[in-house]
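Reproducibility note. Readers wishing to regenerate the assembly model reported in the main text can use the exact inputs given here. Chain order matters: entities are listed in the order in which they were concatenated for prediction.
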Amino acid sequence: MLDSTIVPQNFGANLKMAETYLGMDVGGTKLAVLVGNDRGEVLQKVKRPTMAQRGPWPIIDDLVEMAGEVLEKANLTLNDIDAVGVSIGGPLDAAKGIIYSPPNLPGWDAIPLKNVLSVKLERPVFVENDANAGALAEWRFGAGRGAQNMVFLTAGTGMGAGLILDNRLFRGANYLAGEVWKIPLIRKGLDDPNPLEFEYLTAGPGLARLARKALQKNPFSKMLEMVGGDLQKITGEIVGKAARLDDPVALQVLNEAGTYLGWGLAVLVNVLNPEIFVIGTLGIYLGDLLLGPARRAMRETAVPQAAEIVRVVPAQLDATIGDVAALCVAMEKYEG
Amino acid sequence: MLDSTIVPQNFGANLKMAETYLGMDVGGTKLAVLVGNDRGEVLQKVKRPTMAQRGPWPIIDDLVEMAGEVLEKANLTLNDIDAVGVSIGGPLDAAKGIIYSPPNLPGWDAIPLKNVLSVKLERPVFVENDANAGALAEWRFGAGRGAQNMVFLTAGTGMGAGLILDNRLFRGANYLAGEVWKIPLIRKGLDDPNPLEFEYLTAGPGLARLARKALQKNPFSKMLEMVGGDLQKITGEIVGKAARLDDPVALQVLNEAGTYLGWGLAVLVNVLNPEIFVIGTLGIYLGDLLLGPARRAMRETAVPQAAEIVRVVPAQLDATIGDVAALCVAMEKYEG
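Running the prediction on these inputs yields the following structure tokens for the assembly.
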């Protein structure tokens, strides 16, 4: 039986309640607002379509309404919330919480989201771009746990990066660190009018483009059956499905896309010397079918001693990454 | 008259003696050992040729001898020295102070320089690679003073980078951050056997190579007179001299080299979003003749909002950078 007079010294610390957060994941197609805690656990969640063409103000009204709904579902009030975290497309000013025209959110020109939401919700609000928020999520609760130096690549419809350097998120001089989509990978020379960039060659649409090109040369592929002959329906997932059935065209496409991905990783190895790359959407769907060729190409083109020590792994949080990412933004409480 | 009873509150702090350091700059052609302080001032200095082919041990003996000499010149003893800083080619382990085969120092295979020197000198010894040490020097005492995020490029015979991120030196997972020389800038496609890298296209020997190529096509240039017709004598300095006399071939060469430099800067802008680039040797010798085209090419290829805010300037410490760099290594007292 426990002697009730013995109280562990850190008794108070153990009893400390988890902080409770509102998380908002503002994407180009869907909005999610959720209640969660500092263990990355989501307690309740509501979703709505973004209908991005409406512009910022109706969307912000929706977010506030959704906050009310999700709090009711969780039997909480705003008073129970320690902070609000918003994950949203950049460019944005993370200290001031101002959004500058993300490509997926038309009309958000210098929208002071942090101020507007903190007035409406009367809670402290924090804002990060989605790549940085995803990096925090994978670093705190996913594949990057314990890493001192980690690069997270979104690898979905776009190719953004979030950088954890020396154990903290690195944002850059005006919050634009990690805009790796714009790195040229193929450039023929001084007068090449059209260098091909990291995102163009490796994100979801780029992978589909490579697959369509390969199918035009060689239509004898399971991919074509899977989309009923409609090349426009080819996606990264279809390529992965066919590759797992040993479809040679699909395997060749993943080999090519993986090589380009590895070239991009090599640039980041040479600049940042990270210990781990965590690869988002495509990394999760395609695993080693994509990451195998990427590792190979990376080792062939990066500084060898730096390439040797770096691991390339899929993200772990999968479909929940946006939720956990928003909670992590609240947890960071970044003020600049 | 000053009232002698009024003592400023920070009187003690003002009276604090400057720390005194030994700095060692270990290059492939020359060794320098100097006495200096934490204001970056060099008090005394001795130099010897490296004679790198001797391998590590005679060179280390020389460094210890030179330490004795320079202390004598400064009327000091080892007891007056707070720390010893060594700036030397990488790769190396900055925490353990072990040197791993720098290209300019043959035979330095896993040499525990920090331990050996601290036993021989009986002072605390700290070691950094020369690009990182140069970055510290320009950040503390040169063109990068006050910057939160700065990239220093050596731009001499090689192209290494030292990264100051969020107000501190970023070293990477195994001290290989900033190995930017290896970034491919021209790559024709999937099967290009020979992508052309940042250092090959932009460092001193690359600039000379471009000039020789241009002179073979068009020999009507002041450069050829300057080297008495001997193409092997073309250097970055010669190109700069001729360009300042409006030699069209030299100007065209600097335009091309500057464009490549700008491509490299653009990659670093997209990854790191720094507020300033400080360009070493070639930046100092060639100034805007090189940096003008570099800025233009950078702005054409980098993320616009990040390229807009970044300045590209020559290093300020000039020939003294190696001395100040070694003092800065002592000042950092990095233990990992």
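We highlight two features of this model. Residues 248-272 of chain B form the longest helix (25 residues). Residues 6-14 of chain B have pLDDT under 50 and may be disordered.
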